[in-house]
Specification:
With 246 residues, the chain is α/β, with parallel strands linked by helices. 43% of the residues lie in helices and 15% in strands. The chain has eight helices and six strands. Bound molecules: farnesyl diphosphate.
Length: 246
C-alpha cells in the first residue's frame, strides 16, 4: 500500500512548511553545477504543490531564499533570482488551473525590482484562488520578522496608541508576515540536516518536525505523503498529558 492510501484525510495538517535543502549536494553528486540542483529543485516544488492540491492541504510554505542566502557567491544569488522570476511567470497559469494562490513573505523590498514586480503580478492574478495558498519565503529570516514586529509594536507604544498590557500573543501574531496563515502543524526538512535555520521560529513553537535524508530534488509527493503519515502517528499534547486529550 502506498503512503497516499495510508493517509487519514480527516486529520491532515492544515499548513505544511518545508525547508528545501540539498540542491547543491544533489548537483555535486552528479558532477554538475549547483544551479542545476536548484533547477531540478523547482520540479520538486511543482510536484509537492500538486500533491498538496490533490489531497487538500490548505497552506504550503517553502523556504526558497533566506536572509543568509544573500551571502552566497553572487553568481548563485543571481541564478536563484532568475530561476524564481522564470518559475513564477511560467507557473502562473498552472497555479490558476489548480486554484492555488501565490503569496510571499520576507524582506521583499530587498529583492531585484523585476522579481518584486513579477511576484506582485502573479500574486494579484492568483489572489482569488482558494484551494491552497503557496507561500514563498524570500529574503526571509524569523529573527528579521520578529524584530520587525517588535519595532512596529514599540512604535505604537511610543505614540501612546497601545498600552504594554495590551501586548498579547494575538497582537504579536497580527504584526507577523504570516498573520493571515495558521501556524504550521508539520515542518519538513530534507537532506539530513537537523536544524530550523531561522525559519518561522515564532510560528513553529508547537510544530511537529520531520527530517529526511532525501535531497530536495529527489523529494516527490510520495515522500510528502510519507511525512504526513508519520505526523499522523504522533500525539500532539501541547503541554498536556495523554489522558487529557479528546
Ligand atoms: C537549499 O539547497 C536550497 C535553496 C537555498 C534554494 C531553494 C530554491 C529552489 C528549490 C528553487 C527556487 C524555488 C522556487 C519556489 C521557484 P542548498 O543550495 O543549500 O543545498 P546544499 O545544502 O546541498 O548546498
Amino acid at each position: 500500500m502506498g503512503f497516499k492510501e495510508q493517509l487519514d484525510i480527516n486529520r491532515l495538517p492544515e499548513h505544511i512548511a518545508i525547508i528545501m535543502d540539498g540542491n547543491g549536494r544533489w548537483a555535486k553528486n552528479q558532477g554538475k553545477f549547483r544551479v542545476f540542483g536548484h533547477e531540478s529543485g523547482v520540479l520538486s516544488v511543482k510536484d509537492i504543490v500538486e500533491g498538496c492540491v490533490d489531497i487538500g492541504i490548505k497552506y504550503l510554505t517553502v523556504y526558497a531564499f533566506s536572509t543568509e542566502n544573500w551571502n552566497r557567491p553572487i553568481e548563485e544569488v543571481n541564478a536563484l533570482m532568475e530561476l524564481l522570476i522564470s518559475t513564477i511567470n511560467e507557473q502562473a497559469e498552472t497555479l490558476n488551473k489548480n486554484n492555488v494562490r501565490l503569496n510571499a513573505i520576507g524582506d521583499l523590498k530587498s529583492l531585484p525590482q523585476k522579481c518584486i514586480d513579477d511576484l506582485a503580478n502573479v500574486m494579484e492574478v492568483t489572489s482569488k484562488n482558494s484551494r491552497c495558498t503557496l507561500t514563498l519565503a524570500l529574503s526571509y529570516s524569523a529573527k528579521w520578522e520578529i524584530l520587525s514586529a517588535t519595532k512596529k509594536i514599540a512604535e505604537q507604544v511610543k505614540e501612546g496608541k497601545l498600552n504594554l498590557d495590551e501586548i498579547s500573543e494575538e497582537l504579536f501574531n497580527a504584526q507577523l508576515t504570516t498573520s493571515n496563515i495558521p501556524d504550521p502543524e508539520l515542518m519538513i526538512r530534507t537532506s539530513g540536516e537537523h536544524r530550523i535555520s531561522n525559519f518561522l521560529l515564532w510560528q513553529m513553537a508547537y510544530t511537529e518536525l520531520y527530517f529526511t535524508e532525501t535531497l530536495w530534488p529527489d523529494f516527490r509527493r510520495e515522500d510528502l505523503f510519507e511525512a504526513i503519515v508519520d505526523y499522523q502517528k504522533r500525539e500532539r499534547r501541547f503541554g498536556k498529558i495523554s489522558e487529557q486529550l479528546n
